[in-house]
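REQUEST ID: PR-0412
SUBMITTED BY: lab tech R.K.
PRIORITY: routine
TASK: structure prediction, single protein chain
INPUT:
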Amino acid sequence: MPGLRAKLDAYRRQKEVAHVAAPAAWQNAESGAETAGIDTAATTLLQQSTAGLQAAGQEAEQQPLVVQPWSLVLLKLLLWALLQVLFIVLGFGLPFFVVSSLYGMWANTEVGGKRRAGQKSAYSVFNENCEAIDGSLDAEEMTRQMLYGPAALAMSAAKKRQ
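STATUS: complete
OUTPUT:
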């Protein structure tokens, strides 16, 4: 009960600051419900439930709308499927499929430097100090594997630790 009363008091102070008039029913309940023949326990219960609902509404208003990534992908896929059906009906299903596939490939490449900080490019010339990614095969690695066989893996690991 004390928590609800505190929320009610905070709500009332907020409304006074904003100079918003309270609804007529609220004013009647505060001004003298006993004289109107309304039970005070019922009035208190009404005030508490109203304050709880208003506090919950304020909490909901303060939280920003968060869109999950999977739902966004699902919406995009649904939109694409609807457009595909529309273009099939119009007789341009195959061109729409080809153009949208090419756009999908272009949009998902690293155009514009979308790499995260510290992420290496598959092409070593774009990395700092022309550093190759793990698992890439260069001429030195190939020579090592032909000369030393399985021991080349241990040599490669030792070289990378240095």
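NOTES: Residues 69-106 form one domain.
REVIEWED BY: pending
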